[in-house]
From TrEMBL, chain A:
<keyword id="KW-0812">Transmembrane</keyword>
<dbReference type="InterPro" id="IPR034804">
    <property type="entry name" value="SQR/QFR_C/D"/>
</dbReference>
<keyword id="KW-0472">Membrane</keyword>
<dbReference type="GO" id="GO:0005886">
    <property type="term" value="C:plasma membrane"/>
</dbReference>
<feature type="transmembrane region" description="Helical">
    <location>
        <begin position="107"/>
        <end position="125"/>
    </location>
</feature>
<keyword id="KW-1133">Transmembrane helix</keyword>
<dbReference type="InterPro" id="IPR003418">
    <property type="entry name" value="Fumarate_red_D"/>
</dbReference>
Automatic annotation (TrEMBL), chain B:
<keyword id="KW-0479">Metal-binding</keyword>
<comment type="similarity">
    <text>Belongs to the succinate dehydrogenase/fumarate reductase iron-sulfur protein family.</text>
</comment>
<feature type="domain" description="2Fe-2S ferredoxin-type">
    <location>
        <begin position="4"/>
        <end position="94"/>
    </location>
</feature>
<dbReference type="GO" id="GO:0005886">
    <property type="term" value="C:plasma membrane"/>
</dbReference>
<keyword id="KW-0997">Cell inner membrane</keyword>
<dbReference type="InterPro" id="IPR001041">
    <property type="entry name" value="2Fe-2S_ferredoxin-type"/>
</dbReference>
<dbReference type="InterPro" id="IPR009051">
    <property type="entry name" value="Helical_ferredxn"/>
</dbReference>
TrEMBL record, chain C:
<keyword id="KW-1133">Transmembrane helix</keyword>
<dbReference type="InterPro" id="IPR034804">
    <property type="entry name" value="SQR/QFR_C/D"/>
</dbReference>
<dbReference type="Pfam" id="PF02300">
    <property type="entry name" value="Fumarate_red_C"/>
</dbReference>
<keyword id="KW-0812">Transmembrane</keyword>
<dbReference type="GO" id="GO:0016020">
    <property type="term" value="C:membrane"/>
</dbReference>
<feature type="transmembrane region" description="Helical">
    <location>
        <begin position="102"/>
        <end position="126"/>
    </location>
</feature>
<keyword id="KW-0472">Membrane</keyword>
């Protein structure tokens, strides 16, 4: 056996918790690439660009689409995961720009992603529960 | 013979507190490499100039240098491609020892830490280890690394945090982890799983652009992120057997 | 002989030095307009929960010039992000069949086809077919 502890004097480094944040970041990255163009194009900019009419974005239709059980997928794919995606890049960006690194920046970044995600889920759940 | 303006970064640790620039003019033709030009300067103009080189054929990895701010091998870079002249500086992100020579010991320490060699039981009765072409194809690309360190000069994360294991070391760890003959993955994962392992990378991707051997370390590092994530998930679900790292942790 | 290595500084402006670094920073910066996109959706979700009057108010808000400008930026940023992200996919998760790898261009094109499909699906969900008959 050539493996022993004598030839590795350095201690075993601590396992990073980054797999959690990176997985959320990556899933968010896929969602941003796949869903955001469609929603930005047709919903947020649909009327100004003349791609959809105000009638197409009427209250009843949107209410039915968004608060449908499958609408949870939209909340997760277009809001929750993109939030984790964004805050992950901002966290690393702060390190890149030498503005901040360490515990506080990390808590603030992922904490705000958790907070805003909870807000989105809460907004969705309260209406879905009431109407469902 | 045409001549070209060359600006070299000089640093003489005995006299200087910081590097300074010195201009030279060299003769060149279509076949003159940056390394040839340095030899010409040392032989004919300033014998005090220091630089590192060995094989002159892009295999030893000794003559890494910044050419107009871009990490290059001096032997593989030609003056004909820089008609406006060029600036040579020591490889970025490393401490400068003298003139164009850097201290690469940090990179070499990282390289040692990930055990870049085959960890395998001997094949039975002196038989060779057999490997199919498909098994070879999994890691072959990553085995072309010559340890020149250009990717470290290209990596801002290594510049920001020198403890980051860095592109080449992680690419080589990945290369041996992918090798069907190797059984040392468990020993390498502890390093890769840490904040200074694969997780120090933000996929800038410039390491792969500058690699003179087409290794694509950025791909290796980011494939390593998936491997590290899976390793974490498996560790999570595995019943705690022996407290293996108890005396080592922290 | 004593050594005196010179450690070159790494200023916070390092990323301005090379096009590759500027490109990287631009890619990372796509999340800033993305945050405005998410805020727009949060506001929309809130308005939709409040009732029809509030939703109509939201649709009017979407048509203010500064909101259009920021959402257009978010759209462009998401497309730029997609372009960079799709290119990374074959590098991070190469699909292998034996000793061959699926060509990168095929994986990238398939992802763009996905984007197009989502746009068409959403257009259909919003009654695009009926509205244009």
């Amino acid at each position: 056996m050539r493996t022993n502890k004598q030839d590795t004097p350095q201690t075993t480094p601590r396992r990073s918790d980054e797999p959690i944040w990176w997985s959320l970041f990556s899933a968010g990255g896929v969602c941003v690439a796949m869903l955001v163009p469609a929603i930005a194009l047709l919903v947020l900019l649909g009327i100004p660009l003349g791609l959809v009419s105000a009638e197409q974005l009427n209250y009843q239709r949107l209410q039915a689409l968004v608060f449908h059980p499958l609408g949870l997928g939209v909340v997760l794919g277009a809001m929750v995961l993109p939030l984790f995606h964004a805050m992950h890049r901002i966290h690393h960006g702060l390190h890149d720009l030498k503005l901040a690194h360490g515990r506080l920046a990390k808590w603030l970044c992922y904490g705000s992603a958790v907070l805003l995600s909870s807000l989105a889920l809460w907004l969705w759940l309260t209406v879905s529960m009431a109407s469902g | 013979m045409p001549t070209l303006e060359m600006r070299l970064q000089r640093y003489r640790p005995e006299q200087d507190s910081a590097p300074h620039w010195q201009d030279f003019r060299v003769e060149y033709d279509d076949s003159t490499s940056v390394l040839d030009a340095l030899e010409q300067i040392k032989a004919e103009q300033d014998s005090s100039l220091s630089y590192r080189w060995s094989c002159r054929m892009a295999i030893c990895g000794s003559c890494g240098i910044m050419v107009n701010g871009v990490p290059k091998l001096g032997c593989k870079t030609f003056l004909r491609d820089y008609p406006k002249g060029l600036q040579l500086a020591p490889l970025g992100n490393f401490p400068v020892e003298k003139d164009l020579i850097v201290d690469m010991s940090r990179f070499l320490e990282h390289l040692t830490a990930i055990k870049p060699y085959l960890i395998a039981e001997a094949a039975p009765q002196g038989q060779p280890h057999r490997q199919t072409p498909a098994q070879l194809a999994r890691y072959k690309q990553f085995s072309n690394c010559i340890n020149c360190g250009l990717c470290y000069a290209a990596c801002p994360q290594f510049g920001l945090k020198p403890d980051f294991l860095g592109p080449a070391a992680i690419a080589l760890a990945h290369r041996y982890n992918l090798d069907s003959r190797d059984s040392g993955k468990a020993e390498r994962m502890a390093q890769l799983n840490s904040d200074n392992g694969v997780w120090g990378c933000t996929f800038v991707g410039y390491c792969s652009t500058v690699c003179p051997k087409g290794v694509d370390p950025a791909a290796a590092v980011n494939q390593g992120k998936i491997a590290s994530t899976l390793d974490g998930v498996i560790q999570w679900f595995k019943p705690a057997k022996e407290p293996r790292n108890k005396e080592q942790s922290k | 002989m004593s050594r005196k290595p010179y450690q070159p500084p790494m200023p916070a402006s390092w990323w301005l030095k090379h096009p590759a670094y500027r490109f990287y920073m631009l890619r990372e910066a796509t999340v800033v307009p993305l945050l405005f996109f998410v805020a727009s959706l949060l506001y929309g979700l809130y308005a939709l929960g409040q009732g029809e009057a509030s939703w109509l108010h939201y649709l009017a808000w979407l048509q203010q010039p500064w909101v259009i400008a920021l959402n257009s930026l978010a759209l462009v940023a998401s497309l730029f992000h997609a372009w960079t992200f799709f290119a990374l996919f074959p590098q991070v998760m190469p699909l292998r069949f034996g000793s061959r790898t699926l060509p990168a261009w095929l994986m990238v094109s398939a992802q763009w086809a996905g984007v197009l499909l989502v746009i068409l699906a959403l257009w259909w969900l919003l009654g695009g077919v009926d509205a244009h008959q």
